[in-house]
Amino acid sequence: MLSISENKKGGFLPEAHDIAHTLCFVIHDAMVQIIKSGEEQNVFTTRISLKTDNEVESLEEMGDIFLWLEIEKRFDDRAKILKTYILPFVLSDMMHCVFESLESSRKAKLSISYMLIRKPLQESLYLLEEIVLDELDFSEKLATDPLKLRPSNASSIENHVQRIRKVLEIIGESTRFDANYIAQLRYEKRQEDSFDRICNKAMHLFTERRSIRTEKLNINFIFSGWDTKLAQWSYLYSRLPYLLFYIYKVVEYILGGIAPTTQKYLDDIQRRISALIILWWESVEERYKCHQLTDFAKETKFWLYEHCKSSRYRRPENKDLLRMYKTGAYPKGE
Prior knowledge:
Blueprint: H1 18-40, H2 53-62, H3 65-71, H4 75-106, H5 110-133, H6 135-144, H7 157-171, H8 179-187, H9 195-203, H10 226-256, H11 263-283, H12 291-310, H13 318-327
């Protein structure tokens, strides 16, 4: 899996972040491929059964399928249609933001990077989580009051934590990811370790909330010198892979309810991404490490080692990991 980032030369990104940048693009590319393959195979088209001539006639007369589904109380069909239709559009918008954020980062336009990453992390991902939690409730909100699908409806960090914890339980990733940390990174302005805090400063010239108040004689992000940019890069590339892989697992789960993918393919993608996660973690500066990310890297390494073992291959070394992420190949020899 050669990422499209391989074709992007130049820029100002420090070499220390090359692996992290590639990892982000590889996860991005895996989700873009979901859209492309789905469209090619007509996966995002939903068929519903009309059992009687009366149903056919009433639908034709009404001319509005969603109104018809509501009148007929076919809420399961409505949820299935909306989930299937919305996923590729929301995911496409998310990946446009991620792509441009990463490209801006490569060009040292860090304020643009942080502005662009805010929407997919806070709003788009929230929407996808709603589908995972309860697709019937999601479709009801979308049909009757879409404003109920805004992240602000969670109303508190604690509520964000609870809903993310439920998502992790549903998708089977409670061990690898930390619900408290995901909520903190996306929504907590009071913590230093938070995208929300940095993204708000990137978006606004002046911020007044106490935890992110603009300093005297300063304008947010405008006067960033090289040392400040280095810190902004280090933070971005020490946290973004974690959240992008979480997004991928959420999307993978939703897609499984639309058009199940073979386990062989899913393992191949996870094998490639896991190989890069291990290499990425070795490149993260110690001061940017935390126990949540340590657990993430540890669980990913455990999965990859057990996966290779169950497939009758030896534990991969670093040279194997580089080949694995590019080709999906297992370690050679004994």
